[in-house]
Design brief:
The structure holds three protein chains of three kinds. Chain A is built from six helices and no strands. Chain A is mainly alpha-helical. Chain C is an alpha/beta fold. Classes of the chains: A mainly alpha, B mainly alpha, C alpha/beta.
């Protein structure tokens, strides 16, 4: 009985198959990550509010260009937690909290969060949760942006002319790819350097 | 730093709706939301909005009090209405022609309908928010609706930290100013400083998250079946609220169907 | 877990067999070859240098260690003969951060959380919650919001949450490190009462030995390599290991590290016997060194508040004041504003070159708020803060009107939490940030720094000097967030010093620090005093006040 502690840390759940089961630390970090994304999004909308409302009055689809800010929780959650469902859980919870902080969205945030989280989740599912590189992140962000446009066009923008809906979709996809995709990958890398991800799948350093 | 204080995510709770069970309120709000989201015509949405206002006035939240507290919601609804009026291809006589902006009677009607709908969608969310305790809501979600307890409780614990994060945000602003950060000029400088501040908040919050996970795990969280110290209870108030909500949802549909105006969003 | 009806001695035995821990990516193991047993009911104080793996050991005993790749541990740990992870509810664990030991938003729910997880039947939960709250002397309604608690109360709440689970082994990881003196004593008393009454086995990690000495009966001291250096009865071990402990920076009872006193050139009037209110604006009787004792910053009739006017109102105030100042008119003083709810009022003080001023007072007396107001980071609720020309050096005489660049070269503020002030990805860049900022400004405008604009070479030399003096040279390329607590504290002070401000304002600089970091900080501050820098420290630390020969301003009396 010299080496009994060779199992994974965390919960009793964490002891069996490691890759795909959620430990307590994964769940709690995912939830807090969603919360902090919501707070940052709220600050970001406060900062951009004059700009965004002015541009929304001048040319509504331009709002799609900053839509990526709304989607960061999904990709960041997937990149950090690296568990099936992480994107969906983070994006849904963040959307609900963003809805609470901003209050002008109503319960449709639940639908929005599900649709957008699903977009990210699908991309990582296609890699079977094995690839978390810059490309995957960017594609995930873009798909999430596209899903956002589809959802918004259906739920809110249905009166818009079709070409305007398309412009909006292009804008949100771009914004998703850049802000929620590529940028979040760099954020994940910067977070790895700080050591705060040490307990998570994304932060585990290699053994020498 | 400024007086940007934490928004009252969950305001003071009193009155009939506050005593109703959160799950009933949530499901009711979702039902009304669903009816409005799927319906594009102003009659359905107008009746739904009116019904909600009557219900809220009945429990002591008059339209004036709502307006003074919720003007950003009204503003957002107006902005989205304007956007639609601009971009709708509904025809009719031209009312305004300004550069690329063309507004016709048809598009103005569409815009007005969107603004009305925006208000009607926002209201159920706000109502639940103003009258519900998050802990009670979590109890209901896990015990009544059977959502996974580990995720619901982690979300509840994370929600408590939102307030801590908002306070920390303003401390961070001062702490970084003391180092001379944010010296960059123009919008780019503002963005860079925002990014830096957000990153530090992210680091702090993730640190907190791993410590919180440790605390929760040490208290036996996630180890197996658990009991609940609080039980959600359902009473006469809930029946009343349920009936009112169904009446609003069904009434809105019934009126617009009777008038022949009902239209789904895909129609 | 079936609840035990019998509250008789219930401690469990703890066994460690050749236990070690090596985090992936680290050069050295945190713990090596620890073999010992702890008898049921034994109370142990675990000491050692920071980074020696004390926390890791406690986490392993609690079964909550966060092992990144599942291969960090070696050897064997048992609690009551089984793996700690199979002994949920047997072990109670507390760490030092109050904010993350509160889980739920109501006091009662928070204490009940652990009982729910142990599947205690509902009818037993609430009596046990009340009993646990009584036990830690926290008489609050069950609905009381947890956000309204002080740090010390939060820690006692956490203890109640742990004790309600009726643990048979209590593990405490620096439970009082983030709590003020009174809070620490109350917590300690609550722990002592609980473990003695139930005969619970206890292991506590804490570098404030005096606090726990009366409670524990055995002391284990780890060395730098994570091995057991001393192990034995409290008195004997503390005596035998005293030298090693002092070297490691443990606060052994009756000892304060010796530091050099400030030179105090310039016989200014500031002394411990004079109140700052006594010399309102009186000119300083000539000091022997030019500048020493000279007033750099003063406050008159000052009231301070955390509640600030809206951002736009502050910007308007700033524009108006700057316009008045450019036209040579007096700066407007802040009028009484009831909306701002001052936490402290009627403050008169002078901050003098080469002198230290300690701001003391009970929690909530407005000490930190005063510090931030003096630093120009908050606007006064009433009265004024004025910078003398020697400090303002061409800028407006009110610090709250300075922009970030003007601020760093004049007033350096060290916040209580070092990580809040980190801006760059490496230690070196962090230190270079301030000077670079100044140089960029100097290139842009005519803003002056003390003794003209430093050249790049001067900056590099200053950064190198700071790295060496603060023992951070080996870590120059490390990410600031990865440093230990003491290293972060030293870095946060160094980053501010890198911009060579004439006034240094520190919020609880020595709080929770080990004796080694404490001595280094004091040496650094004394050196700054000797250079003619004015030091303002918000502190509870009597030893610090004595070491800096600081004048004391007591708030809230």
């Amino acid at each position: 009985m010299t080496q009994v502690r060779n199992t994974s840390a965390g919960t009793s759940q964490g002891r069996g198959t490691r890759r795909n089961s959620w430990r307590v630390v994964d769940i709690v970090v995912a939830a807090v990550l969603a919360a902090v994304c919501a707070v940052i999004f709220w600050m970001w909308s406060n900062l951009l509010y004059p700009l965004v409302s002015a541009s929304a009055v001048a040319y509504p689809p331009s709002g799609g260009l900053v839509a990526g800010g709304w989607l960061v929780a999904g990709t960041l959650g997937a990149l950090i937690i690296r568990r099936p469902g992480a994107a969906l859980f983070c994006e849904l919870l963040a959307a609900v909290l963003e809805g609470f902080l901003g209050t002008h969205f109503g319960w449709t945030v639940v639908i929005s969060g599900l649709i957008q989280g699903l977009g990210v989740e699908l991309v990582f599912l296609l890699t079977r949760y094995r690839r978390f590189g810059l490309l995957t992140a960017t594609v995930a962000g873009a798909v999430s942006g596209l899903f956002l446009a589809v959802g918004e066009n259906l739920m809110y923008n249905y009166e818009w002319a079709t070409d305007q809906k398309l412009v909006y979709a292009v804008f949100t996809t771009l914004s998703g790819a850049v802000i929620a995709g590529a940028l979040m990958w760099f954020v994940m890398r910067a977070l790895q350097a700080t050591g705060v991800l040490g307990a998570l799948a994304s932060g585990a350093a290699r053994r020498r | 730093m400024s007086t940007t204080t934490a928004p009252t995510m969950f305001g003071p709770r009193s009155g009939l709706l506050a005593r109703a069970n959160p799950v009933v309120k949530l499901l009711g709000a979702l039902l009304i939301t669903l009816v409005i989201v799927l319906s594009a015509d102003p009659v359905t949405n107008g009746v739904a909005l009116a019904g909600q206002l009557v219900l809220l006035a009945g429990v002591g939240l008059g339209p004036w009090r709502l307006l003074t507290r919720l003007w950003p919601v009204v503003l957002a609804a107006l902005v989205s209405g304007w956007g639609t009026a601009m971009l709708s291809d509904a025809g009719g006589p031209v009312l305004l022609h300004l550069g690329w902006i063309t507004i016709t009677t048809g598009s103005l009607g569409a815009g007005a309908a969107i603004a009305l709908r925006g208000l009607a969608i926002a209201l159920p969310g706000i109502t639940v928010l103003l009258t519900t305790d998050p802990t009670d809501l979590a109890d209901g979600l896990a015990q009544t609706l059977g959502l996974p307890a580990r995720f619901v409780l982690a979300a509840l614990a994370a929600m408590r930290l939102v307030e801590v994060m908002i306070t920390e945000w303003s401390v961070l602003a001062a702490a970084r100013r003391a180092r001379g950060a944010g010296g960059g000029r123009g919008p780019w400088g503002v963005l860079v400083e925002f990014g830096g501040q957000a990153f530090t908040l992210l680091v702090q919050s993730l640190r907190r998250a791993t410590r919180l996970a440790m605390t929760m795990e040490a208290r036996g969280f996630g180890a197996g079946p658990r009991t609940w110290a609080r039980t959600p209870h359902y009473g006469r108030v809930d029946v009343l609220v349920g009936v009112a909500v169904v009446a609003i949802a069904a009434g809105a549909l019934a009126v617009s169907l009777a008038l022949g105006t009902h239209r789904f969003i895909w129609q | 877990m079936t609840p035990r009806a019998d509250p008789a001695p219930t401690g469990v035995a703890v066994g460690l067999e050749n236990f070690g821990w090596h985090y992936p990516g680290r050069q050295d193991p945190s713990l090596t070859g620890i073999s010992t047993t702890i008898a049921p009911g034994e109370r142990v104080l675990l000491l050692g240098p920071s980074g020696a793996g004390k926390s890791t050991l406690l986490q392993a005993l609690a079964g909550v260690e966060q092992d990144p790749d599942g291969q960090s541990g070696s050897g064997r740990v048992t609690v009551d003969g089984v793996d700690p992870r199979d002994a949920r509810g047997v072990v109670g664990f507390m760490h030092q951060d109050p904010e993350t030991q509160v889980i739920l938003s109501r006091v009662g729910d928070d204490v009940a959380f652990g009982l729910e997880n142990l599947a205690v039947p509902r009818e037993q939960i609430w009596p046990r919650v009340r009993q646990a709250l009584d036990r830690v002397d926290l008489q609050l309604p069950l609905e009381h919001p947890t956000t309204a608690l002080s740090g010390g109360q939060k820690q006692r709440l956490a203890l109640a949450g742990v004790m309600a689970m009726r643990p048979r082994l209590l593990l405490l990881d620096e439970p009082t490190a983030s709590v003020d003196h009174d809070g620490a004593r109350q917590l300690c008393a609550a722990v002592a009462g609980a473990v003695r009454a139930d005969g619970i086995t206890m292991v506590v990690v804490e570098h404030r030995v005096a606090l726990w000495e009366p409670v524990v009966e055995r002391v284990i001291v780890l060395d730098d390599h994570g091995r057991v250096a001393f192990d034995g009865p409290t008195r004997q071990t503390l005596h035998d290991a005293r030298e090693l402990l002092q070297e490691q920076g443990t606060w052994v009872p009756g000892w304060v590290p010796t530091t050099r006193p400030p030179a105090r050139t310039g016989a200014g009037p500031a002394g411990p016997e004079t109140s700052p209110r006594d010399h309102a604006g009186a000119p300083d009787p000539a000091g022997s060194t030019p500048g020493a004792g000279e007033v750099l910053l003063s406050a008159r009739g000052l009231a301070v508040s955390r509640v600030q006017p809206p951002r736009r109102a502050i910007a308007r105030r700033r524009r108006r004041a700057l316009r008045a100042w450019r036209h040579g008119e007096p700066l407007p003083e802040a009028g009484p504003d009831a909306q701002l709810r001052p936490v402290a009022a009627g403050i008169d003080l002078d901050v003098r070159a080469g002198r230290a001023l300690a701001v003391t007072g009970v929690n909530g007396a407005g000490k930190s708020t005063l510090a931030l107001t003096l630093a120009g980071l908050l606007v006064p609720a009433e009265g004024s803060v004025r910078a003398a020309e020697a400090l303002a050096a061409g800028a407006a005489p009110d610090p709250s009107l300075w922009d970030g660049g003007e601020l760093v070269s004049r007033v350096g503020t060290v916040f209580q939490h070092p990580e809040h002030q980190f801006l760059r990805p490496t230690v070196r860049e962090e230190l270079e940030f301030g000077p670079r900022q100044l140089r960029r400004r100097a290139g842009r405008s005519s803003a002056r720094t003390r003794g003209g604009t430093p050249s790049e070479a001067d900056d590099a030399a200053r950064v190198a000097d700071l790295l060496r003096r603060l023992r951070l040279a080996d870590l120059a390329d490390a990410n600031p967030f990865t440093l230990s607590g003491g290293q972060k504290r030293r870095l946060s002070v160094a980053t501010v010093l890198a911009a060579a401000p004439r006034v240094l304002i520190l919020d609880e600089p020595t709080f929770g620090q080990d004796a080694r970091t404490w001595r280094e900080l004091v040496d650094l501050l004394v050196a700054e005093l000797d250079r003619g820098t004015a030091v303002v420290a918000v502190t509870h630390d009597r030893d610090l006040i004595a070491a800096l020969e600081a004048e004391e301003l007591r708030l809230g009396t």
